[in-house]
Amino acid sequence: MLSVLHRLQEIAAPTIGLGCMNLSHAYGKPLSEPAALRVLDAAFDMGYRHFDTATLYGASANERLVGRALQGKRNQVLLASKCGMAIDPRLGKKVIDGHPETLRRQCEASLERLRTDHLDLYYLHRLDRQVPIEESVGALGRLVEEGKIRALGLSEVSATTLRRARTEHVVAAVQSEYSLWTRNPEIALLDACREAGTALVAFSPLARGFLTGTLKEVASLEEDDIRRGMPRFSAENYPKNLRLLEDFLAVAREVDCTPGQLALAWLKGQGEDVIPIPGTRSVDHMRENLGADEVNLDAATHARLNAMMTPDQVAGSRYSEALQADIDTEEFS
Predict the structure, then answer these.
(1) What is the enclosing helix (H) or strand (E) of 317?
(2) What is the pLDDT of residue 2?
(3) For residue 1, is pLDDT > 80?
(4) Which of 27, 48, 57, 319 is catalytic?
(5) Alpha-carbon distance 300 to 214, whole Å?
(6) 178 exposed, middle or buried (CB, 10 Å; 0-12, 13-18, 19+)?
(7) Percent of the chain clearing pLDDT 90 (strictly above)
């Protein structure tokens, strides 16, 4: 059974990984393949070794992209992908399906697209409420036994679901949104992960760009950017949330780092078992994010940050009602 932390240490990976989704999915028009390949090549050259993709992203185009970029480098990286949520070409929309036969089929297709004979980490992307979690995890466990995946993970699940899943197989990692303005894992999931020695892989650790301090106007986003439909970025809520940034930006100036680096340093300070995977299309931002490894926050600064952007201060929910219906994670009341 692969320990995510041990694997990252084994390949001398930085403590920050790379989420590859927005090269192909959800944040406006995808990059052209040549441009995306240049970005991924630069990421590897500057030191990234943990690459995260999924069957869903770009209707599987992201996996093909990552597979091509990492060809010849496979043994030097931790490669993670996800199953159980995909774009159905017949329906032209996202479908969640956790049936064992679906997960096996998607895994085998992912291996082909990623040009590899195994995945280091393979997540169930969403809980299928029509399929007991034990059945889905059992199917992934059989893929571990066959050597097609080295370790299994879950994404956007509750502490209760994680504990049920563990009765069927060891869960190496849980992926969940976690940042200074999204503290949901602190309700129960982080404790459940630590009970089992499960890593928490934090996606959107920069709050979908909010914590970089660079997104002043939601209107500047492309029309098909996913953030346009998120309540926190609405015309009513976003100005209120921008006001929460003022104290945060002041701390970044005091610490002498960028706001993004401060956000990542805060998250890394939650424990070595919390692994941020920020995503970006910008080579400069990739380099900046890696620089967060050099930012060390003292206890007083960490406490100041903890008091900022608490759930009662943030305006708007994390997802729309339609998207939230697919999410199993705990919500603040």
Answers:
(1) none
(2) 62
(3) no
(4) 57
(5) 26
(6) buried
(7) 97
Whether 57 is catalytic is yes
CA distances from 215 to 44, 218, 233, 239, 242 (A): 27, 7, 10, 11, 9
- Least Cα distance to 55 among 90, 99, 107, 20 occurs for 107
Residue 199 is classified by DSSP as E
Mean pLDDT of the chain: 97
* pLDDT at residue 68, rounded to an integer: 98
Cβ contact 55:26 at 8 Å: no
Q: Does pTM top 0.70 for this prediction?
A: yes
Q: Phi, psi (5° rounding) for residue 298?
A: -80, 170
Dihedral over alpha carbons 237, 240, 242, 246 (to 10 degrees): -160
Confidence at residue 3, expressed as pLDDT on a 0 to 100 scale? 83
Pairing of strands 274-276, 199-203: parallel
Give the HSE-up count for residue 47: Cα atoms under 13 Å, Cβ half-sphere.
12
User: Are 84 and 106 contacting, i.e. CB atoms less than 8 angstroms apart?
Assistant: yes
Mean pLDDT, rounded, for 265-282: 97
- Structure-block tokens of residue 159: 């502490």
Listed by start position, the domains of the chain span 4-209+269-294
Tell me phi and psi for residue 175, to 5 degrees. -100, 130
Whole-Å CA distances, 310 to 161, 214, 305: 25, 21, 9
Q: What is the pLDDT of residues 107-130, one digit of tens each?
A: 999 999 999 999 999 999 999 999
State the CATH architecture for 4-209+269-294: Alpha-Beta Barrel (3.20)
Residues in Cβ contact with 163 at an 8 Å cutoff, skipping those fewer than 6 apart? 192, 195
